[in-house]
Hints:
By secondary structure, the protein is α/β, with parallel strands linked by helices. Helix content is 27%, strand content 30%.
Amino acid sequence: MKQVILYTIEQLSQxxxxxxxxxxxxxxxxxxxxxxxxxxTLVKKLLAExxxxxxxxxxxxxxxxxxxxxxxQKIFHFDCYRITNLNQFLEFGFDEYLNEPGxxxxxxxxxxVQPLLDQQLAGRVCSLxxxxxxxxxxxxxxx
Length: 143
């Protein structure tokens, strides 16, 4: 499955509503794109759509934030930008989050953990790639 969506920030809520249907069968969602492309903005909208009521913060310095939606489902939001290699990810024990029953993992900057995802978790992973088209328009590729 590969889908391409062009959208503006004003259209993001509708895009996220549709996106939740496209990714509902996946427990791991990766987000790639340049700095400022809109990865965290998309995550915030997804979490709100899934019923997370608390404030959503970027895990840039904590590596991972855990949220629960209004049904009690855990959602882990990773930012792997500062993780230097797969061994560091494993040493932190983050691979355990990926296997938590019933949980969803959203991973920004997943390149460092991609070998783990490809080798052990491939059937559970959906990739979202975000890029700038213009100041107010983005392109989202769903794989």
